[in-house]
Amino acid sequence: MQATELRTVGASAERIDGREKLTGAAQYTVDIRLPGLLHAAILRAPLAHARIVSIDVGRATALPGVAAVLTVDEMPRSSVEGGDEAGGEAGGPVYALTDVVRRVGDEVAAVAAVDIDTARRALALIDVAYEPLPAVFDPEQALLPDAPQVRGVPNLVGGRPLLLERGDVRRGLAEAVAVYRGHYETQVTSGSPLEPRAVVAAWDEDGGLTVWKASRFTFGDRRALAKAFGLELEPERVRVVVPHVGASYGNKDESRIAFIAAALAKQTGRPVRLAYTRGEELADGRLRHPARIDLAIGLRADGTIAAIEDRTVLNTGPYVPGTAVLRRSAHGPTYLYDCANVRFEGYCVFTNGFVAGSYRGLGAPQGHFALESLIDEIAVARGEDPLAFRLRNVVKPEGQPGERYQPTETPVPSQPIAGGIPFSSNGLRACLQEGAARFGWQQRARPHDRLPERGKYRGQGLACCIYQTGQQPSSAQIEVGEDGRVVLLMGTVDVGQGGRTVLAQMAAEPFGLPAGALDCRFADTASTPFSSGTWGSSTTFSSGQAAKEAAEDAVQKLLECASDVLDLPGASLRVEDGRIVGEGVPGDGLSFGEAVRRVGRGTVQGYARVRPGSLTHIINSFAAHFVEVEVDVETGLVRILRIVAAHDCGRVVNPATAAGQVRGGVTQAIGYALFEEMLQHPDGRPITDSFLKFRVPHLRETPPIEPLFCGDPDPFAPYGAKALGEPPLVPTAAAIANAVYDAVGVRIRSLPLTPARVLAALAAAR
Amino acid sequence: MAGETIAELEYAAPASLAQALELAARPDAALLAGGTDLLGQIKDGAASPRLLISLANLPELHGVADEAGSLRLGAAVTLHELLRSDIVRSDWPLLYQAAAMLATPQLRSAATVGGNLCQRPRCWYFRNPRFDCFKKGGAICFAREAGGETAAGAPCVAPSPSDLAVALLAHDARVQIAATSGRRMAPLQRFVLPNGDDPLREVDLASGELLIAIELPPSPVACGTAYVKEWDYDSWGFASANVAAVVSLNGSTVREARIAVGGLSVAPYRAREAESWLVGQALDETTAAAAADRAIAPAEPPVIHRYRLPIARACIARALLIARDAVPTAP
Question: Measured between alpha carbons, how far is A580 from A559 in angstroms, rounded to an integer?
């Protein structure tokens, strides 16, 4: 455990980038202006599956103002998959421009021109002849033996389903006195970052490449680009810089746009900017996997859970294999409730549909929607209050039933299937109890025998979740100069979530400084140390560990300098309020600058490279959300009146940014639950290509959201801080659906809960 | 994508109606008032004019005026101006409510009354450059196809998104139209076209014609009105169903009822059968619901919009009761 006297960690430090952003001074990728900058646009395929027979770029190239037109033939023969898009090259390489079209919108050619309008006009002058191929959009149909193959291999990613088992589910179901089943479906949604994907690429005279990119993973981009452009042995010649990012949601992981911009820049000898339109960001970005989930839960006579069986099918579209998403969809069903017998059978399936990828929460919102809907149904069927049922059955702090885990030399995975492993900390019961108290949860187990015909009805619902804390290798460097400035250098990206501020707080603590006193330099592969990227709820925990240890290392070295300079024993010295003090230190202490100057070594450096985690315990975060809704049974409209979101993320490093994370995630979950849905025509053409069609929550649809933090500091986490990035949008949709049931008596097992769905469910139930 | 880029355009801002009409006869011209619809159409690949004619400098198209109990609205009056008008606020509550429930303050400050009536459908296929639907010279209604209906050659099913049209229909409004050949008046009911022969037009406004003004005759004596709109979100949106009701009473029974219904059919319609059925009835929850059933009976929305039928029914019943309660009590 940490010393209890924390001053910077735990305080609502002002966001380091807040002023810059509010005044408009913050530079985003599209704000990068370079002399001679060209603008790029992408020609996208109109068919869902086709072979390109011929491309004639003659007319496009001849258009005045066009500098280059590229097709697959001019692109590096290096896959854009496999590097940063986790999951490997299932189904062969994928090039940044393609001659085999696997979805409507696939990248066929790219143009660079003096301005964006000219580039887009040139697209219309590229003549492409396509040979259409049979396409498949439904994942169950794609699994049939004679289905068209999307990637030249069977459509089931990995060739066999993902099986996760603990105990014996068959025996568990056999010993159950009642087995409850449900079929659940969730839709495709977009994270809809304010800033669409963007990149600027420029080659220098020495053959070095600099790329400015809204990226969540600079080193992944560097590796992929170096490989593509023949710099594999000297990747340092590729520099990837991330300006301010207008949100990533785990989603800005495509190297493809950097490949295209870099290839165009190489061809033209000029810097090139490629920025997605909103329509492209929606239809051609990386979307949330739609899921079909069959869930069965067996109950013993005493109301405990004997078995949980889950079959999940995810439609991943033609590219990102999605295996991590599939595993994450299993986490809730296999681990949230105390249960000796669980079985998860998961299918991730290639289709010619939208490209699904990594998006905040991965598969967890889908899995928890099914699980927490069915758990609610079971509680009501038993006549038991859903809160009481959960408190009785949620996983215990000592972990799932099973033989006691024998530690090895590698950290316990944060998302295991085996039992017998204790949690490092588990505030799930606290989230349920304190959340319920704050919300004013009333004991309820209301069966609806008569469905109302008219009027508006209120209801309350809850749902909880379990979520991994991201354990990623990370590193940090601290430099203290002769001017006394403390510089924090980190490869991780602040994607807009406030990572920079929180990491500065964690690094500032050992110096006794406020976060704002640090000079933070992030996400530039030329000057910042390695990071695994900003994803998987790992920044505060993993990068925070690195920031803390690097700062402690620097403090230790400063004390050594001071010890030399003052000729005092190191043990008598310490750092307080940004100065070196201790017995025998003259006056009000030695400043950092003076210590560095007098020792005469230029700078003092601290460094840490960490592989965080625990060898003995699972490090997970937890949450419970409580929702009140009002449902109009005549129009089907669901209004959310208020939400209490109780979270265990261990110690809260910054209450203000933590509250922001929770409110943001819950807001996305409201859109997920109520109206967000990416739609395709039956032939694969995207329909929802703007915010008028893909509706995200507006202010009126965002009710008061009250974040509540119920966790204790985690003994294995830096300052006790666990993950918070993704959990806020995991349990909400189920809590909303449960509240709709409470209000009007219908279970809706498909998202989103549109008026049409609510009315259909009411009509079917009457 | 196509669409994101606007082709080069000519722009004219004529200072007289005569000049405007002359320009409007050009087949590649489009009339630009608030632009909140037209510019979106151009960006979405649903329109590709070469000449934009601004209506900003034409005095005939401006002004909100009371003319002996009638109301004259210039076609280029913005919705913001409409809502700020004392006459509208005090004497035309139905119109006021319809305008107030429409879009957002930003849009209302630019959008105009005439533009609201003439706006084109909000169909997601029509407003998507990837689809050459019936309204863009194609041979298929994709909205019907998405619902599993016969799609080839079937006419467009996209409902008018106009809020004002519904309110104005209940007021028996008329429109004033100018052309180089002269002026004409038409009842709004004939101006908004049900599925006509020409899929490219939703209103009876020929090339070269210009909507000048809308006129509302005096309302029935001692009537109550209501505008009820539902859409798929809590925040603003285009109507899934919108209803305007005007009710006057004879003691405790209905003397006259008017019901205008939008969202279910290509053009908003007056539910005449329901209106006459109500006459002489006491207006209560039961008769309002029965009238609502009759009022939606003529509608045949496409499969993808059938969920709107019960919503429209609820809107009609609610509107009738609100209008009844708004009838001024006799002094």
Answer: 7
Q: What six digits make up the tokens of A267?
A: 């061809």
Hey, CA dihedral for B274, B277, B279, B285, is it positive or negative? negative
pLDDT tens track for B218-260:
988 889 999 999 998 888 899 999 999 999 999 999 999 999 9
State ipTM.
0.94
User: How confident is the model over A527-579, as pLDDT tens digits?
Assistant: 999 888 888 889 999 999 999 999 999 999 999 999 999 999 989 999 999 99
Q: Output the pLDDT for position B150.
A: 84
Distance CA A544, CA A469 (A): 12
Pairing of strands A705-709, A620-632: unpaired
Q: Tell me if residue B191 falls in helix, strand or coil.
A: helix
- Structure-token pair, residue A442: 């009333």
Non-local (6+) Cβ contacts of B164 within 8 A are B95, B98, B99, B102, B113, B116, B117
* SS3 state at A686: strand
Strand arrangement of the beta sheet that strand A162-166 belongs to: A162-166, A342-349, A305-315, A291-299, A178-185
pLDDT of B4: 56
The angle, 0 to 180 degrees and rounded to 10, between the axes of the packed helices A655-674 and A732-744 is 50
Neighbours of A571 (CB within 10 A): 10
Per-residue pLDDT of B128-175, as tens digits, reads 999 999 889 888 889 999 999 887 777 888 999 999 999 999 999 999
Q: What are A178's strand-pairing partners?
A: A299
Mean pLDDT calculated for residue range A119-137: 97
CB contact under 8 A, A635 and B44: no
* Pairs of CB atoms within 8 A across A/B: 91
Q: What is the pTM of this model?
A: 0.96
Edge-to-edge strands, sheet with A127-132:
A100-101, A50-56, A127-132
A383: number of Cβ within 10 Å: 9
Please give the single-letter amino acid code of residue B166. V
Closest chain B residue by Cα to residue A698? B235
Of how many residues is chain A composed? 766
DSSP 8-state assignment for residue A643:
E
Provide the token pair at A7. 């001053």
Contacts of B125 in chain A (CB under 8 A): 681, 687
How close A574 comes to chain B (CA, Å)? 57
* Residues of A in Cβ contact (< 8 Å) with B240: 755
